[in-house]
Amino acid sequence: MWKDTITEVINYIDDRTKTTQKQVKDAVQAANDSPSRMESRYDSYREEYSMQAAAIGNNLVGLRLLREFLAGLLSGQALQNSNQIMLGALVGLNYGDGDDDEFVLLIPNSGGDHIEVSGKHISTVSIESPLGAALIGHKIGDNVKYVSDRRTISVQIVDILKDG
Fold first, then answer.
1. What angle do CA 20, 106, 97 make, to 5 degrees?
2. Looking at the domain covering 90-161, what would its CATH class be?
3. What pLDDT, on a 0 to 100 scale, did the predictor assign at position 35?
4. Which residues, in sequence order, are CB contacts of 104 under 8 Å at separation 6+?
5. Is the dihedral of CA 31, 62, 124, 122 positive or negative?
C-alpha cells in the first residue's frame, strides 16, 4: 500500500503542477495585458497580477520539491528500518470515534491534500503541522495528543508503513 500511495500522491502532484503552471501563465499574461499608466501608484492591476503570479509560483516550487522528495523515496532512498514514525511514513490513526482508521502521509512541506488510494482516504500532513510534529518518533500503539484549533486531540497510532 505504501508504494501505491506514494505513486498516487506523485500523480496527484503532477496534475496540480500542470494546473498551477497554467495559473502562473494566466496571471503573467493578465499582468502583461493590463494597461500601463505613467503614474506608478495607479498601476495597481499590473502589480496585483504580478504579485498573484509570484505567489502561485512559490506554490509551484513547493510542489516540485515535494514531488522530488517522494520520487526519491520510490527510487530507493529507503527510510530507516525502524518502528518509529519519520518523514515519509504512511501512518494509520484511530481517533476513537468509531470511524474507520485514517491514514496520513508525513511530508516535508505543504500538507492538506486528500487522496483516495485503494479505497483508503489518505491525507498529506506536513511535519511542521501540530499533528505531524506530534507523530514524529512515536510507535504503533502509542497515544499521541496534539493541539488544533485550541482543542487537544488524542489519536492512537495503529499502523506505520514506510516502504514496499
1. 110
2. alpha beta
3. 65
4. 90, 91, 93, 122, 123, 124, 125, 131, 132, 135
5. positive
Task: Give me the sheet containing 90-94, strands edge to edge.
Answer: 114-117, 120-126, 102-107, 90-94, 151-161, 143-148
State residue 79's pLDDT score: 56
- Rounded average pLDDT over 28-44: 65
Q: What's the rounded Cα separation, in Å, for the pair 38 and 30?
A: 19
pLDDT band with cut points at 50, 70 and 90 for residue 119:
confident
DSSP assignment letter at 78: P
Tens of pLDDT, residue by residue over 144-160, are 999 988 999 999 999 88
* Share of residues in the chain with pLDDT > 70 (%): 87
How far is residue 146's CA from residue 88's CA, in Å, rounded to a whole number?
Answer: 20
Q: How many CA atoms does the CB half-sphere of 110 hold within 13 Å?
A: 13
